[in-house]
Design brief:
The chain is α+β, with helices and mostly antiparallel strands. The chain is built from 11 helices and 12 strands. The structure holds adenosine-5'-diphosphate, (3R)-3-hydroxy-3-methyl-5-(phosphonooxy)pentanoic acid and magnesium ion (MG). This is Mevalonate kinase.
Amino acid sequence: MEATARAPGKIILSGEHAVVHGSTAIAASINLYTQVNLRIFDDHENGDRLLTLQLKDVELDFSWPVGRIREALPELSTPSSSSPTACSPQFMKLIAALVEEQDIPEANAGLAAGVSAFLWLYASILGCKPATVIVTSDLPFGAGLGSSAAFCVALSAALLALSDAVSLDLNHQGWLTFSETDLELVNRWAFEGEKIIHGKPSGIDNTVSTFGNMITFKLGNLSCIKPTLPLRMLITNTRVGRNTKALVAGVSERTLRHPDAMASVFSAVDSISRELSVIIQSPAPDDLAITEKEAKLEELMEMNQGLLQCMGVGHASIETVLQTTLKYKLTSKLTGAGGGGCVLTLLPTLLATSVVDKVIADLESCGFQCLIAGIGGKGVEIRFNGSP
Ligand SMILES: Nc1ncnc2c1ncn2[C@@H]1O[C@H](COP(=O)(O)OP(=O)(O)O)[C@@H](O)[C@H]1O
Ligand SMILES: C[C@@](O)(CCOP(=O)(O)O)CC(=O)O
Ligand SMILES: [Mg+2]
């Protein structure tokens, strides 16, 4: 049995971090994907009875005899695919021991969290069957584009597709979407994986990766947004690596030290996201209306960036992007957890292509990497063996 799932990354237009503390945020899927191919073996096919995880982008393979997993996690021998469960601290220790056995190279130490999430999702959804899981991704890891969520969503989708918990047409040719109920299940499992990687995620990244589109998200509830203007964003990867879990924990610590001040910061972010959502969806009959709306969006992005600075998630490389784009009268804000990672720059509709080319050249001369991704496309999809 074989299935391949793909799940998109995302950008956060407003509200990162504050969304963890209950504020509204706005996110959109992007057309960069993580793809998970899952092949479960029949008893006679895999003599060694191994569970293998191949991470193609970093050229790393991990393997465990399924008997070793069953011995370490005996309670998970009977999977519970239709009821997502959190990985308890006790299970986390047992999983950490299985991951440690793999000797992940020091340079890829951050992957341990992803491999732990893999083991939890695999054993919880499918039990201890021998299988090979191959992962490829267009997304940079740890750069704010939601690679952790895309990984958890694609993995949950592939595992559930070959479990008894969802109903799909196995003969369908090409990419297939899940039913709304099955998407909910994929999303809930992905959230459990994201918890292992992020510590305390809001759930916005896995939700937008699962359902796609552009969404507002607050306290676990999503609502779809239909933009009335093109919303072109330049994404600049500062290439400064960082770890979402540590940054989220840092904001929580600051919140404990200054609860009243931080409550005001989070409330201001909530207002910004709500205003942004109204502007994005209000009618824009002509170029003048679009230009006026873009100016308001820029102002709100600038305000959000200032508040992210208040939360302590800025970085010198982000400042360089802000200053560089400002030379071209363009507004930018960090996206995702900050501390480096990616920065968004709004490219107004009437901006000349020559200016876009110049700003990209300027940013690239600083050693950054630029891309313009399609935003607001489909969420997770699945494809079965043999279909095109
Ligand atoms: N394709 C993948 N395979 C394994 N682990 C992954 C993959 N993509 C992401 N991860 C995990 O997610 C971590 C990065 O997540 P995070 O710090 O939240 O940044 P972001 O989600 O912005 O990329 C990686 O260090 C790794 O543990
Ligand atoms: C900072 C946060 O709002 C988004 C993190 O996104 P990313 O992992 O940096 O892509 C955390 C969350 O909402 O779970
Ligand atoms: Mg992440």
